[in-house]
Amino acid sequence: MEDYDEVYSFWQSVEGMGLSSADSREGMQTYLERNPGMSLLARDGGKIAGTVLCGHDGRRGYIHHLAVGEAYRGIKLGKTLVDSCIETFRKAGIHKCHIFIFIDNESGKEFWRSVDWEERNDVCLFSHDIDYPNY
Ligand SMILES: CC(C)(COP(=O)(O)OP(=O)(O)OC[C@H]1O[C@@H](n2cnc3c(N)ncnc32)[C@H](O)[C@@H]1OP(=O)(O)O)[C@@H](O)C(=O)NCCC(=O)NCCS
Predict the structure, then answer these.
(1) Distance of CA 20 to CAs 10, 123, 129, Å?
(2) Is the pTM higher than 0.70?
(3) How many domains would you assign to the chain?
(4) 130 CA distance to ligand 1 centroid (A)?
(5) Which of 8, 65, 81, 84 could be a cystine partner for 52, CB 3.0 to 4.6 Å?
C-alpha cells in the first residue's frame, strides 16, 4: 500500500488500462489483504517498470492491471510478471486463470497470444453494479 499513489499515477499513464472504484485506496487495500504477497511491482532503481495484480477466489485465478512502462517493453518483463502469477496460482492449487481485456486493445491481445494464452470466443462477460445507499 505504501506504493499506492505512485502506482495509481503509473496506471493512469498506461494506454489500455481500465481504472474504476475497485482501484481506490480502500479497494486496493481490500484486494491486497485478500490476496497477500501475490501481486508484483517491478522497479528499475526508483522508477516503476511494471505491475501486475494477481489473485484467486479459491477456484480460478485472475490477473489484472498487467502493465509495463513504455521504456521497458519488449524485454520480457510482461511475460516474467505473468509467469510469476502462474507460479503463484500453481502453489495455491489453482488449475486455470483468466484475464479481462478491452476488445479494442489489439496490442494487448497480441501479447496474450504471444505468451500462448487461449483466446476465448465461447464466453462473454456480463456485469452488474451493486448499489449502496449514500454512495
Ligand atoms: C502488454 C504489455 C504488458 C506487454 O509487456 P512487454 O513486457 O512489452 O511484453 P514481453 O516483452 O514480455 O513480450 C512477451 C511476448 O509478447 C510479444 N508482444 C508483446 N507485446 C506485443 C505487441 N504489442 N504486439 C505483438 N507482440 C507483442 C513479444 O514479442 C513477446 O513475444 P516472443 O516471446 O515471441 O518474443 C505492455 O505492452 C503493456 O503494458 N501494454 C499496456 C497495458 C496493457 O494493454 N496490458 C494488457 C491488458 S491486460
Answers:
(1) 15, 23, 12
(2) yes
(3) 1
(4) 33
(5) 81
- pLDDT digit string (tens) for 41-91? 999 999 999 999 999 999 999 999 999 999 999 999 999 999 999 999 999
Residue 59 DSSP label: S
Beta bridge mates, 35 = none
Q: What are the grid coordinates assigned to 17, written together? A: 488500462
Let me know if residue 124 belongs to a domain: no
* Residue found by looking up cell 512502462 in the block: 69
From the alpha carbon of 63, which atom of ligand 1 is closest?
A: 48
Query: Is 105 close to ligand 1, i.e. is its CB under 6 Å away?
Result: yes
Name the residue with the closest Cα to ligand 1, atom 40: 67
Examine residue 125 and state whether it is found in any structural domain, yes or no: no
Residue 67 belongs to what domain range? 4-114
In the prediction, which pLDDT does 133 show? 85
Residue 122, domain member (yes or no)? no
Domain containing 14 — which CATH number?
A: 3.40.630.30
Q: How far is the CA of 68 from the centre of ligand 1 (A)?
A: 8
